[in-house]
Amino acid sequence: MGDNPSMDFIQDRLGFPRRLSGRLWLISLPSAVVSFERRSDVPKLPAGGSKGVGALMLLGAAAAAFMSMRQPDTTVAYSGPLAPVVQNPRTLAGIAGLGGIAFFLRSTSLLLYAVGLAALGGTGRVDLEEPTPGKLLGRD
Fold it and tell me: Is 58 left (phi over 0), alpha (psi -120 to 50) or beta?
């Protein structure tokens, strides 16, 4: 993990976590990002077709979540640049769901957050905890 000095500085000096819980990266931080965006002058995504793209991404996220509930030990056979994020259907569903909601709400900040999570998780800089219903609802 020592190939990016700026990220090492952020994680070591500023206390940026190396592991994010499912509740934090999927519920708490996105709501804070949307709240911040509504109080600031961040430009919105273009209106043309963004709700359609968001709906398709949400359907894909729901399909991945349903697949992971039916077969909990399933992984996606993928070895590309975002493999640590994409191989787990629950994590894939969470990131795709965030992206879909971002397009549906036309939220630039939420879309950048989802892309940033995918990039950090894909490079191994941050370990995204697998979201499960029990963990998200505080039962586990």
Answer: alpha
- pLDDT tens digits, residue range 88-140? 888 889 999 999 999 999 999 999 999 988 988 888 878 888 776 655 555 55
Three-class SS state of 48:
coil
> Strand locations in 1-140, DSSP E?
19-20, 127-128
- Whole-angstrom distance, CA of residue 53 vs CA of residue 16: 32
Strand, coil or helix: what is 140?
coil
Q: What is the DSSP letter of 24?
A: I
Alpha-helical runs (H) found in 40-132 = 50-70, 83-86, 89-105, 108-123
Tokens of 19: 């592991």
Size of the chain in residues: 140
